[in-house]
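User: Design a sequence. Structure:
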């Protein structure tokens, strides 16, 4: 047990457990996020084998068992240095990581969206965790309108060279897709 603390009158000062629970809530949310990671990424984090095994075990639990296990994971994360593990996780799984492969994939997705490919929406729903389909379609419609207007302008002014620069909505579309978190694949 921890050492007891006393006030000026000699009464025991008790720990505010509700406050401590509120302070650990962000660690619990992070533990839930770690459970979404594929198991092969756990060795990339600065965690010991006990926590790795607990995370693997947590993947198969549901209901009350998962709730109790999250409390256990929260305690383990707190003991092993939550801030350091969080920093490593953000470095490994940063949603705004701009790798060339990601950029090329997103450019291909945007090209298919603007070309009117109906199959791309199902693929995007399967790839991105928090995809807002209504917002995506709105951005695509606006980008297509601007492209049609630019094409009509170029046809009217024959000497002007067509611009391949992305319009405002294409840039918004790219920024939106880059910011989405991917579903983790096992």
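Assistant: Done.
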């Amino acid at each position: 047990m921890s050492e007891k603390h006393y006030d000026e009158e000699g009464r025991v000062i008790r720990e505010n457990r509700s406050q401590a629970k509120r302070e650990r809530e962000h660690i619990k949310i992070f533990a839930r996020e770690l459970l979404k990671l594929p198991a092969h990424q756990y060795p990339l984090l600065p965690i010991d084998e006990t926590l790795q095994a607990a995370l693997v075990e947590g993947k198969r639990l549901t209901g009350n068992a998962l709730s109790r296990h999250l409390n256990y994971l929260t305690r383990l994360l707190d003991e092993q240095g939550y801030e350091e593990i969080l920093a490593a996780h953000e470095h490994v799984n940063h949603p705004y990581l701009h790798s060339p492969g990601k950029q090329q994939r997103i450019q291909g997705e945007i090209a298919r969206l603007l070309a009117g490919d109906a199959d791309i929406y199902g693929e995007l729903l399967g790839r991105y965790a928090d995809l807002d389909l209504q917002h995506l379609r709105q951005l695509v419609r606006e980008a297509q309108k601007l492209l049609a207007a630019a094409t009509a302008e170029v046809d009217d002014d024959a000497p002007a060279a067509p611009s391949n620069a992305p319009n405002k909505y294409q840039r918004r579309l790219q920024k939106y897709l880059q910011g989405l978190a991917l579903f983790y694949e096992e």
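Residues 130 and 180 are 6 Å apart (CA to CA). The domain at 17-94 is CATH 1.10.60.30 (Diphtheria Toxin Repressor; domain 2).
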